[in-house]
Amino acid sequence: MNWMKKLIIVSKLNTLIHSLSSFGLSIVYTIGHVLISWVCATLIFNVDFLLASADAIIEPIINGFWFYLLHKFAHDKLRPTVLAVVYTLGHFSIASMWSYTFLDVALNLAVLDAIIEPILNGFWFYALMYYWNLQDKSDNQFVSS
User: CB neighbours (10 Å) of residue 26?
Assistant: First the structure.
């Protein structure tokens, strides 16, 4: 794929992400979170498809609400990096409590999952916020010119 096609794809992705409200952006985030969570549960807990799927659906929905709250009330007050750190710390707490309490997995596996999976989702969160903020900067540049 040549650089022009890549630029067009990135531009369309950026426009799509920015066109979403906090609710829409949290839906996009939650879909990515489900995929990341399913892979982590399958590999770390070594559980069957159904338990990994339950973990991959329920825990990300809880974190989707966490994402929504942060984006709705703090996306314009904190830089994306700070927001990603705050999100990741909350995600760690939610993930470890969920795995240990409700899935009844060993504490060491719950902690391992609660470290790896939120870090991956922190990068996913940062990527969405980064693209969201890129669009804001471009809009401001066009308005001020």
Answer: 23
